[in-house]
Amino acid sequence: MSETMRGNAGSSPQTDEGGMDEDVLPAKRQALSRRNLSRSGDGLRPVDVDDSQAIIEKWTASLERRGISTVVSGHHSLLPRGVGYAKNQAVAKSRGENLCFLDADDVMMPQRVRLQHQATLDHPNCIIGCRVKRQPDGSTERYTRWINSLTPEQLLTQAYTSHGPTVIMPTWFCTRSWFEHVGKFDEGGKGVPEDLLFFYASLRKGGGLLRVDECLLTYRYHPQAASLAVHEETIWSHRVVFLQERILCQWDSFTIWNAGKQGRKLYRSLSPANQSKVIAFCDVDESKIKKGYYTYEDSKERPKPRIPVKHFRDASPPFIICVKLDMTGGVLEDNLRSLNLKEGLDYYHFN
Known about the structure:
- The protein is an alpha/beta fold.
- It has helices at 17-28, 52-65, 83-93, 112-122, 141-149, 154-157, 176-182, 194-204, 232-246, 261-269, 272-275, 286-291, 331-338, and strands at residues 2-8, 34-40, 68-73, 98-103, 107-108, 126-135, 173-175, 208-220, 254-257, 278-283, 293-295, 306-311, 319-321, 347-349.
- Strand 2, helix 2 and strand 3 (68-73) form a beta-alpha-beta unit.
């Protein structure tokens, strides 16, 4: 059995030598008999800025003495090829039956491959993740709490939120056979959410999601990360399409929980068929409730659609929740519990 360690230096705008050394060292310590490290850059910055290839070459002899063969690849194009291209190249040039993805600015724990590989034995058609420690401490605190606290069921039910993949890309581990069944990462380049698109493609093909409930990765935050270059509206469009095809197409009617900006934006983004299924907006804001209706002024229909606005206790499930999680001091969560609703049946979170 062999593994592929995929270190993608290109996802980071700055890879210092110490950081890259931290990245490679744990790969030496992974407790499996045959391993292969395949590293590919994406060309998102000048070669002379990124010394990660030189660092990998420095480590090659030491890695190979430990039984870890290395493959370093890239391209000579003057134009960046993007993160998706780099990931596809690293996978294509590797030889393992299993793929362990690792960004060059993150650090994995010595037991990561062993524990995630064990999980694939019973779940070969899953994307396997793990819990993470964020560095610097306290950065993206709400997001990190969400990553680490989702229940097994919520890995699926919360796949529609603005947080993106419930099993985050830097922690991915999967069989090569499943990766090839799903297909390659999108190679559209900068601005393409290649991890989100692959995540959706895996779910569309019936793939599962699993998190090893141990902290196996130090996940570094930096404000120039490639993921932050993806426009919010691009992600929104993909999320709306996925929500409609996976959930809304199965419902005859539903209520949008939030009569404010985000709820109205979702309504306007829906197909006409799904707009017609919206029986109400609901809210806790008395000023919105007193207005009684939301009128879709941009509609070409005559008369223009007028959607009732109700207090959440007077509204009917199922709900699409357009209120951010962990942002209301527990009020949203308490309100949902008070209705005795079941997530994934009576409601889904979208924001």
